[in-house]
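Researcher: Please translate sequence to structure tokens.
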Amino acid sequence: MHLRSILLPVTATSPRDLSERFAQLLTGLFLFGAGMALMVRAQIGVAPWDVLALGLVDSTGLGFGAITVLIAALVLLLWIPLRQRVGIGTLLNAALVGPSADITLMVVPAAPSPWIGGPMFAAGLLLLAFASGLYISADFGPGPRDGLMTGLVARTGRPVWLVRTLIEGTVLVIGFLLGGPVGVGTVLFAFGVGAPIGWFLALFTRIRTARAHARTSLRTELSAE
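Model: Translation complete:
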């Protein structure tokens, strides 16, 4: 298989557009890992994939960041039979989110009580949603988990909600059996993350579109002079 058929092409309206979007991607991925870590430190339950990661942490003794990177790598292997194309954002997502989470875990202590853990979890959830909108709107390719979902939807013809539910349900059960923490935060994530991600994604997409339009208009005016 040719490399060009595996990798998603990188498109940009100008070098400045490319550099701004790349900075947006890196910022979004770092903040995504920080949001994950805040929810872990809240100690009221975590997202399904993080339940799996923490269950594997207990089973293997490896750090949370390292496990997160390994899970992303294994998920990318599942892309191969699905014939999913990989973007630079996909690879950076797999490589950077885990280390970012580890850095935050080193700085932020565990919440001493649910009264502190609740607000901490909410802050982590909002930060993760903000970061998702930031890195997704940079348009450098989907994250490993998102690509797995869309690939299975394309191959099976099943609706997105069903495929996503089955994936995250399976991950959650395995993580729980391994000792991962399931709690009220897990439920809050499942029902509370979609709306803010959608809002931030729409916001950053509008901002990017407006800036691209402004640059195009400026170039047109300069060329007309």
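Researcher: Any highlights?
Model: The chain has a mean pLDDT of 89.
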